[in-house]
Design brief:
By secondary structure, the chain is α+β, with helices and mostly antiparallel strands. The chain has ten helices and 27 strands.
Amino acid sequence: MRTWLPVPADSPFGIANLPYGAVEWPGHERPKVAVPVGDAVLDLAGALERIDGDLAFLVRGPSLDHLLGAGPEAWAALRATLIHLLTDERHRPVVEPALLPRDDVRPVLPFTVADYVDFYASEQHARNLGRILRPDSPALPPSWKHLPIGYHGRAGTVAVSGTDVVRPCGQRKPPDADAPTYGPSRRLDFEAEIGFVVGMPSTLGTPVPTRAWRQHVFGVVLVNDWSARDLQAWEAQPLGPFQGKSFLTSVSPWIVPLAALEDALVEPPAQDPRPLDYLLPRGPGLDLDVEVRLNGHVVSRPPAAALYWTPAQQLAHLTANGASLRTGDLFASGTVSGAEPDQRGSLIELTWNGTQPLTLPDGTTRGFLDDGDAVSISATAPGQGGTLLGFGEVTGTVLPARRPQT
């Protein structure tokens, strides 16, 4: 597909991508739904008003909420119309007034997060943490290869890329301490993850089969599930993550629709033992090349195609007990890690729980994150015709802790 717009051939936001987001638009009080195309963004409702009023209605609000709930037929119709607008030069008079340079707008959270679930889908990550935290026990928990392990997070602290990371405070107890203390986390970490945004809801009490995952999932984002490892270690027994995770989860600004990712769907790793029937067929994995930068320096390149549990299996297990999906639900893969040391998607793995610190180009070292550190996660996926699709970055800068007011 060719567009009449001046889009660089190597742009991660070419005509094969067309992700959706919401941005603050100069001169308007409310954000607008927008699509990045090359170095510009398109006011989607503004371009559609004179073409298709019904489609324009779906994206006229300040977020993608109406579009997400409209379902697969509406998603397909909107994408087809958008491609037509950008490839048929007869629509140039309609499209050009609705364009702005991407640098002139500021992304906001593109949808209302209903619920947030985080999984533990990377076998390499799970084995690494097992070896670090339970060196005298089997690396994987007994259930790990039988079900996608996950936890329910806090939807209200999911924020768009660029949101600062205030160092969390909480209880922490080092192994050699007699009692816990309260204070700023000393082991703040990042986690490079893949997130899936749910559009169509499901009925309470009715599980969603793996075959139906594409009827419910609208698209894909990048996720940084910031983690306070010392808070997490003290609180996690017996109920799992709580304050060590709930202070902030960052997502990339653009949702890449599943329709753009057909060429990124791949055969997932073999599963042994055979999963139970409700987790079959497995569905595809996603071939995303992820890159993590700490203060501008690349520290990891995790491969998402290595994830053991697929998005279809994660969604099926999420609803296996009859839990219902809601429009705006977000579920994430958990940390993406590969088999090689430079493919580990968190600092706890990269530094082996701080015992093997990273040395950065400026000569400083890191076991975990310092105040002032900036983390950036990006990814590309193969697109139609040999193109590369981008997701935008998910970034955050660590700020000092804020003590409770007395």
